[in-house]
Amino acid sequence: MKTSKQLERHFKGLANHWRLDILFLIAKNPRVTVEGISEALEGNFKTIADHTQKLVQCGLVDKKYYGKTVAHTLSPYGKKCLTFIKSF
């Protein structure tokens, strides 16, 4: 069982409509880049990059470097949170 502080970190990571949209998009398109996310969501690149970084920091999204490209996937906790959101 996670501590209340750990759960708080995950839930605060979800507390934004951009971040929720990013989670849903990454679930449908694993290994998507920030450029791909900003194009798909029609959002400002800097805004999307900031929100994506917050999702990485709170442990819901993983990123992997392929040369100069950074691909994003859901972490195991990101998948659990997404399952919870869909059932809510």
Topology, pairings included?
Layout: H1 4-14, H2 17-28, H3 34-41, H4 45-57, E1 61-66, E2 69-74, H5 76-87
Antiparallel strand pairs: 1-2
Please, how many helices?
Answer: 5
Strand content: 5-15%
Approximate shape: globular
Outline the biggest β-sheet.
2 strands, antiparallel
Instruction: Report the top-level CATH class.
Output: Mainly Alpha
Radius of gyration: 12 Å
The overall average pLDDT, rounded, is 95
CATH topology: Arc Repressor Mutant, subunit A
CATH architecture: Orthogonal Bundle
Order of helical and strand elements:
HHHHEEH
Distance between the termini: 20 Å
**Domain module tally:** 1
SSE class: alpha+beta
Salient structural properties:
88 residues; alpha+beta; Arc Repressor Mutant, subunit A; two-stranded antiparallel ribbon; 5 helices; 2 strands; globular
